[in-house]
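Chapter summary example.
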Amino acid sequence: MVKHIVMWKIKGTNGLTKEETAQEIKRSLEDLNGKIEGLLRLEVGIDFLQSEASYDVVLYSELVDKAALEYYQTHPLHVKVATEVVKPAATSRIVADYEL
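The structure predicted for these 100 residues follows.
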């Protein structure tokens, strides 16, 4: 199993506040559950601490294996969310992928 974790610092986009944008990112990414083969679980959290060191949005996902992660990353549904919703809002991104 592969765990894929991503965190973003974001800004408001398309006339939305930062908080509204975070909710849009959460809805859009979590909607991928059950739609991409090999993606076992995906959840998105929104930071409530809002400290200077905090990231605003975190994605936690579990995939079958490394091949499933590669498939997920290039899947048209994921690419659409990434390019249309996440990337325009992201000001900083960090990621970690590991295998159990």
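To summarize the output: The chain has a mean pLDDT of 97.
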